[in-house]
Design goal:
about 140 residues, mainly alpha, 7 helices, about 0% strand
């Protein structure tokens, strides 16, 4: 492949990624961060030590409590706006990373590099559907 065409394809990937990031973060401006009654039980699990069986195999999955623990969210501060915003932003970054890796995984085996870039863009566009993206701002284990 000629070098100029390679740069154009890389530029196309970057344009798709930039647009994806821009749209993904725009959801924070019009969809509120939401916690539910279940969120309280996740904070209870997050309060348990990492070495306890209740943390890893309790009544709730450990994924969201582990994120809470990493971000310093506990049963005393989970209901304040900065703590909830930190969790929602982290979930959004994890979502961005996962969708980008999925898009690259689908684009990689496609022989025609232009079609690969378009497949990458389509995967990222699919992830921007409102019903999918709003999950980044919901504080439940299914969101993560």
């Amino acid at each position: 492949m000629k070098p100029i065409r390679s740069w154009l394809i890389i530029l196309l990937y970057l344009v798709f990624l930039g647009a994806f990031l821009s749209f993904k973060w725009s959801y924070h401006s019009f969809y509120p961060i939401k916690g539910y009654r279940d969120t309280t039980s996740y904070t209870g699990t997050a309060d348990k030590p990492l070495t306890s069986l209740e943390f890893w195999a309790g009544e709730r999955p450990f994924t969201l409590p582990l994120l809470f623990k990493l971000l310093g969210v506990n049963s005393q501060n989970y209901n304040n706006q900065p703590a909830m915003a930190a969790v929602a932003e982290s979930q959004t970054w994890i979502s961005i990373l996962c969708w980008t890796v999925l898009g690259l995984s689908i684009a990689r085996p496609i022989r025609n590099r232009w079609l690969g870039a378009i497949a990458f863009g389509l995967v990222l566009a699919f992830s921007l559907v409102y019903d999918i993206s709003k999950w980044d701002l919901i504080l439940l284990s299914e969101s993560l």
